[in-house]
Specification:
Largest interface: A-B, 24 and 26 residues
Strand order of the largest sheet of chain B: 1-2
Shape of chain B: globular
Number of helices of chain B: 8
Number of strands of chain B: 2
Order of helices and strands of chain B: HHHHHHHEEH
Structural class of chain A: alpha+beta
Strand content of chain B: under 5%
Number of domains of chain B: 1
Structural class of chain B: mainly alpha
Oligomer: heterodimer
Radius of gyration of chain A: 22 Å
Number of domains of chain A: 1
Distance between the termini of chain A: 76 Å
Strand content of chain A: 15-25%
Distance between the termini of chain B: 35 Å
Order of helices and strands of chain A: HHEEEEEHEEH
Number of helices of chain A: 4
Helix content of chain B: 55-70%
Helix content of chain A: 40-55%
Largest sheet of chain B: 2 strands, antiparallel
Largest sheet of chain A: 5 strands, antiparallel
């Protein structure tokens, strides 16, 4: 019976159905927990892009997010004591291997970048995944967004930088090119929303 | 396939030393190089791989009488992928920081040659209990070498072990060898361990 080709197909079908069913059940069992972890990672990234916020425990992060961040079109408004302290713009798009999700912090002048944090990526370890390293992320602090054209620029290492540019990671050209595009797409959309609301 | 009859002692010694997956068979090198820059990451990777190998071997062995030979590798891949996804879900749900640290390497356990190698070479033709222990001790053999490499790399590179500052290595007297926690450090450490273990092994053979 084992040599019958129809048995092989039937056997593979039954095994696949069995293992898939168990996995679906297990994924459902852990779904709430995984989603809660993803939400906390997002909230933590939102707080990270404002250097004046000192990060605390997960519960503290969630509490701060609820109290100080107000949803707005294409992002969040960060308020403290009723005053606008900045804007957080979540951006996402295709990286080299998988989706990259990040948050860009912008000061109350709507021009100065206060920080950049990546909270989801699956790029090549040691190369593209280095976009999460502090040195690369901190290079975004203080950039000035361009009024015309792409808001920021990621340029090859060794080239001269303007006030709107950071250096790319050597050996991670594809990841950096995609990161630049997804950041610029998100920021352009946010700027358009700001213009439509007549705040500029 | 002819069944290989191995004593429990042989299963243990082969997995840990005589046929060690890292320094003898040179398998699973990708993850060895990638995750050994911190002892904690390495420990989690080792526990994950050991459990996946042991349980995959057990399942392959349990199904060996019904699995047609021409689709056996598809079945093995399905079983390995099942256990790897379970490990991945557990980490994502209960230890998200570790899941993020290990990144794609948890998913890549599926492609680790050690697991498929043991399923094909041993579990497909041996009893379930022996297969489980064969997978377990091969995983343990992999783990011992990885842990040795990670201790050396973290100690010399960061002056810590499991994040705890070590005497002398965390003081200003020790100029941290940052290269040890970077990719080239993994090659130096792995090559040194393979050289050391093979030298000991060849002395054993001569005597």
């Amino acid at each position: 019976m084992k040599n019958n080709p129809f048995f092989a197909i039937f056997y593979m079908f039954i095994l696949t159905a069995f293992f898939s069913s168990v996995l679906i059940g297990f994924a459902r069992l852990t779904r709430e927990k995984v989603q809660a972890n993803q939400q906390i990672a997002f909230e933590r990234a939102l707080l990270e892009v404002f250097p004046e916020i000192k990060l605390t425990s997960n519960a503290g992060v969630h509490q701060f997010f609820i109290e100080h961040f107000e949803p707005a079109p294409s992002g969040y408004i960060f308020r403290r004591e009723g005053l606008v302290k900045g804007y957080a713009v979540p951006v996402e798009g295709q990286g080299y291997w998988a989706t990259i999700k990040a948050v860009i912090g912008i000061a109350e002048d709507r021009q100065t970048v206060t920080g950049m944090a990546i909270y989801e990526q699956n790029e090549t370890p040691g190369l593209g995944a280095r976009i999460t390293e502090p040195d690369f992320c901190e290079a975004f602090n203080g950039l000035l967004l361009n009024d015309e054209g792409p808001p920021i620029d990621i340029r090859p290492a060794g080239t001269e930088l303007g006030v709107d540019a950071v250096h790319a990671i050597t050996g991670a050209t594809q990841t950096c090119t995609r990161l630049e595009k997804l950041i610029n797409d998100g920021l352009t959309q946010w700027k358009q929303q700001q213009k439509q609301q007549g705040v500029q | 396939m002819m069944a290989q009859v191995k004593s429990n002692k042989d299963i243990i010694l082969d997995g840990l030393w005589r046929d060690n997956p890292i320094f003898r068979q040179v398998l699973g090198i990708c993850s060895t190089l990638a995750v050994t820059n911190a002892v904690l990451n390495t420990t989690v990777m080792c526990v994950s791989l050991t459990m996946v190998t042991a349980l995959s071997c057990l399942t392959v062995s349990l199904l060996r009488h019904w699995t047609p030979a021409n689709i056996r590798m598809m079945v093995q891949t399905l079983i390995i992928a099942f256990y790897v996804i379970v490990v991945d879900l557990i980490l994502k749900a209960y230890w998200p920081e570790m899941s993020s640290n290990l990144g794609p390497f948890v998913g890549l356990i599926i492609t680790n040659c050690i697991i498929m190698g043991r399923c094909e070479a041993f579990a497909g033709s041996n009893r379930p209990v022996s297969s489980f222990w064969d997978g377990f001790f091969n995983g343990l053999g992999y783990s011992l070498i990885l842990l040795a490499i990670s201790v050396v790399r973290e100690l010399l590179g960061m002056g810590t072990i499991l994040g705890f500052a070590m005497p002398y290595f965390s003081t200003p007297y020790w100029d941290k060898w940052i290269i040890m926690v970077m990719p080239p450090g993994a090659f130096f450490a792995l090559a040194s361990i393979i050289w050391l273990c093979r030298s000991i092994k060849s002395k054993e053979a001569k005597s």
